[in-house]
Amino acid sequence: MSLASAGAERSWQRLLHTTDLDQHARAQPGWALHYEQLSAGRFGGLVHHVQLPGTRLVHEHCDVAVRQRGSLGAGHYGFAMPLQAGAQPAIFNGQRVDSDAIMLGSAAEIDLCTPEHFSLVGVVVEAELLNPLWQQMYGRPPSAWIESQLVVPARAGLAAELRACHLRVMHDAGAMLGTSAEGGRTASAVSVDDSAARQLRDALLIEWFEALPDSIDTSALPTSLARKRLVDQACALMLSQADEPLSMLEVCRRVGTSRRKLNYCFHDVLGSSPVKYLRAVRLNGVRRDLLATAATVQDAAARWGFWHLGQLSRDYKRQFGELPSATLKRR
């Protein structure tokens, strides 16, 4: 198959300023993502996607700390990095992401925790496009590590250049596609010059590939994956009966670890303690119920184990910047 034939879908652009986590997730078509707000404050975000043949270009921003999990599609690979030099580190599949690091690997399943006021840029590429392009560049198929999720340092001096190139290509592709504004959103799906679209796409992909280090060390991956499996197991257990949360001692007993180790793993994988993370997830659950179901504040509170409505109201307002009753009115 030639590169020219890879990715036959129509090109399009979407730009949306978001005010709700679920709206933010829905603004990313074709992907199955779930977000949890981890830090306090009103949510504000930006989703800018440009779809070119076989490749989606991404610029995303969230004002608050979030955890996003889900899939960008089987048979796809992703490459992303923080947009801001000097940004607070994110955590990608249990691995620290410094400001000049690149997240990469299979897009079938991702788990990313980002700090407040965080932006990233990235590309998601179909395997049928990536494989032959990689073969042409390096004379061999992609290495086996491409099936994992890894964090690697960008080659020295190339991080800023890559960020600038990515934003420039998104701008040029967006201008080629054209947009119309409506309700804070711009969107388009039009036929474009396939040759011009492919040239933009391939030039950007080459920049991403060339920014990767000459060698990639995967020796620390088993350790980070083991910590992440422990955290995932503990999270599933804690949320298995959200209306009556287990004590941390009981969680530790059931997953077979000490409280100290569990705390260490949570901070390493999610950037938070188990207690703080569970409370954030439960508050997100209340908010989601108030917005998406017929639940009353009392119903949602009981479902997520909040038995003192006054304390819930205080915690909820601190987390989301409004009372539960205000959220209910916007349903």
Commentary on this structure:
The chain contains eleven helices and 14 strands. Helix 5 packs across helix 7 and helix 8 packs antiparallel against helix 9 (297-303). The chain has 331 residues and is an alpha+beta fold. It folds into two domains: 11-217, Jelly Rolls, CATH 2.60.120.10; 222-329, Arc Repressor Mutant, subunit A, CATH 1.10.10. The longest helix has 19 residues, at 159-177. Helix content is 41%, strand content 25%. The model is unreliable at 1-8 and 180-185 (pLDDT under 50). It has helices at 21-26, 127-138, 159-177, 194-210, 221-239, 248-255, 259-270, 274-292, 297-303, 309-320, 324-329, and strands spanning 11-18, 32-37, 45-52, 55-62, 66-71, 76-82, 90-92, 95-97, 101-106, 110-114, 118-126, 149-153, 180-182, 185-190. The strands form two sheets. A nine-stranded antiparallel beta sheet has the order 12-9-6-11-4-3-1-14-13.
The CATH architecture of the largest domain can be named as Sandwich
Rounded average pLDDT: 90
Distance between the termini: 49 Å
CATH topology tier name of the largest domain: Jelly Rolls
User: What share of the residues does DSSP label as strand, in percent?
Assistant: 25-35%
As a whole number of angstroms, the C-alpha radius of gyration is: 21 Å
CATH class of the largest domain: Mainly Beta
Assigned CATH superfamily of the largest domain = Jelly Rolls
Helix content: 40-55%
User: Which overall shape is indicated by the principal axes computed on the Cα atoms?
Assistant: globular
**Succession of helices and strands:** EHEEEEEEEEEEHEHEEHHHHHHHH
Helix/strand-derived category reads: alpha+beta
Poorly predicted tracts of residues: 1-8, 180-185
